[in-house]
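hey so u asked for the seq, here:
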Amino acid sequence: MLGETDTLVVAQVLKATIRDSAEPLLIPDSAYEPLIRAAAAHADTPETLVSELRAVVDGFSPTYSAACGLVFRFLAKVATFSKENKMSEKNLAVVFAPTALRSTNPDPMAEMVNMKHSILVVEMMITNAEEIFPDHLEVLVSPKGTEYTAEAI
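ran it, structure tokens below
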């Protein structure tokens, strides 16, 4: 079982790895616009938004889907300790949205304009990870052959 300090360290390393990667590790570039459009269109209807997010995720490769499922389930687990760590789903989304959901537009103002939608997408992915990410893609195999599952986190 992870202790409070261990969880913080894992989250910080995860964020730095995602942020510093040249290629997106969680959400492919091609999904940015559809996810932002879904959040803009359905911000007031969470059930519809979750359905739209699931539809976009269904188009991910198995590797992206598995990686997202594992990470967002992990973040959901971190949020269960929000009374102790102050990291609710919303707070985690504020921290992770800029690195998990990156715009391909080089104009920083474009990304700033969409930030509230990015945060909403990430928050909904954390809150509804079990529903958005398919169960049959819960296993992620590293290049070294190590299997990572949602249950192992």
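The helical segments are 4-20, 32-42, 46-57, 62-79, 82-85, 89-100, 108-127, 129-132. The beta strands are 140-141, 147-148.
lmk if thats what u needed
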